[in-house]
Amino acid sequence: MQTELSRKLGVEHAVFGFTPFPAVAAAISRAGGFGVLGAVRYTAPDDLRRDLDWIEAHIGGRPYGLDVVMPAKKVEGVSEADVEAMIPEGHRQFVRDTLAKHGVPELAEGEASGWRITGWMEQVARTQLDVAFDYPIRLLANALGSPPADVVARAHDRRVLVAALAGSARHARKHQEAGIDIVVAQGYEAGGHTGEIASMVLTPEVVEAVDPLPVLAAGGIGTGQQVAAALTLGAQGVWLGSIWLTTTEADLHSPALTGRLLAAGSGDTVRSRALTGKPARQLRTEWTDAWDDPAGPGTLPMPLQGLLVAEAVSRIQKYEVEPLLGTPVGQIVGRMTSERSVQAVFDDLTRGFEQAVDRVNRIAGRSGQS
Amino acid sequence: MQTELSRKLGVEHAVFGFTPFPAVAAAISRAGGFGVLGAVRYTAPDDLRRDLDWIEAHIGGRPYGLDVVMPAKKVEGVSEADVEAMIPEGHRQFVRDTLAKHGVPELAEGEASGWRITGWMEQVARTQLDVAFDYPIRLLANALGSPPADVVARAHDRRVLVAALAGSARHARKHQEAGIDIVVAQGYEAGGHTGEIASMVLTPEVVEAVDPLPVLAAGGIGTGQQVAAALTLGAQGVWLGSIWLTTTEADLHSPALTGRLLAAGSGDTVRSRALTGKPARQLRTEWTDAWDDPAGPGTLPMPLQGLLVAEAVSRIQKYEVEPLLGTPVGQIVGRMTSERSVQAVFDDLTRGFEQAVDRVNRIAGRSGQS
Description:
homodimer; alpha/beta; TIM Barrel; eight-stranded parallel β-barrel
């Protein structure tokens, strides 16, 4: 699985793995892929530094990258308290009622919510970057829109490639104009924030729209067959996120959540605004059903919704309240049926890829080649 | 593009083309694919007989099939008038208001609506079958659920293969239990009735679920690259519907509609209940927006919605009222940018397929083979 981009980055397989877990990121790169650590949960620079140190000690000198959430547009002089004040009381009451209905316990006194809006704010992302540029990262990915011009310039000064996620050819062209190096075409079936265009249609459209920029296909990819299909569609690599959630190196801190992921079928996800205010694919739960119910108050726009539900989500996760317990994940969750090591996932990907290439060669009448 | 199934049917390319136009169906088979005529619009048996005669005269002895809409469950003793009586007056008024707002003229006195519920009713489908079995069709496809057991048996007696559309692995297994021969896995991105699982995920799931039955991939396929990707995912062929709508052999009777299709991007469709009461992907228009607007009355369940809007849709189409003018079509509409002959579409498909296979062979390090 070698493309121009994988050769440029010096990796064996054109498989990019996005993960919030340092152990998974390191294992992806050690297995011959390209690990990308999601930084959104790091609010303290020292925590990020500690985990990047860990990666450096365990990645065997292989290349890796970092994924931040950095808006191109600044919102000046707005504090988290200002944003908090914009949340209607009726919505707060709906959160309290829904949690009470399911008997979700309170957090202990002084216990912080695990997820805060702060990771989404520009000053936090910039602090993350100050840390990240102390390390030999090879890729900086931005999960929401194009990164600011000065960040792109700073990355390029250090020979760090910049990637950005796009759900349409129009978004992809905007990224190209912003000077980024790689577009991640994120299809409808992907976990997390997605648009409505499915990978089968989106991948070749984005490839054509930003030619000659390399494109990574994201969404619906968890087997070697799907890797082969995505590369057939013109991508220079694949960007996998969901598949790592049930690897042995992942640390979800919740056996119940791991169990739900292993049990879920491809039809058990929903593209809902419940988590952040923008449509994001996640496990369908009674929590997402409550927010998507026309009889409920509905969701608030980003970033209000994320702030509104942050503590509730922490409580649901901490106490593993199963009917409400979810996580962002793509439709490929139906293929996540056993806990495997990252290396075992790679072994399956490469074997499945070779078999799929054999198959399409037979169909093309090139049977001597398969 | 040869698979076990295409060899069994004696066609050169494993490309199945669904179309309501006899001239397109004949051209697909003449070009080396397998043309499938949609029968839902034929309410008079003689009309179907006339068009099948035309196909026989123009298809050059190539194989072809027929697509009917036949529910497995009978609804006994319910007439169209009974169904009409179940439509609330408020919904009828909403139709009148929406048409009036856009100045849509009335049909002439005695002029029939072009689309009626009758094509969806079992007695009509059975009459269609009585006609069809007089012709040497090789495939009978059912667009909605599994066909009744006696119809499957009747087809098999005549060595006619039976296909059924499925939007999930569970649906596909039900078809298999009903004794059908081919499953069409219809992804989220497809035109017409679709589920929520995208082709990239659905195709391999259905292939695995019904093994060893052959699966055709539908949804998001309009280029040779996409054909190659679908076959890589394990399909024994592809099922294309949208791509033929803008061929020179198609007869939409509406230059304005053809123009809208040629201009639309992949983001200009919507999966809406506006047409039939079940989610069907179609061009997004002010008509679908009105039905999908939370401030409106909302859609009725199938078959009420189809009956409610039948005359309105005929009027919109006849008078080409552009803001309301739509048609079922998949996300691949973004690739339909010029009118081409069916043969030209096939030439592009086969050339693109070969290039995609070359590309994936290079990535797999089999460069001597590309």
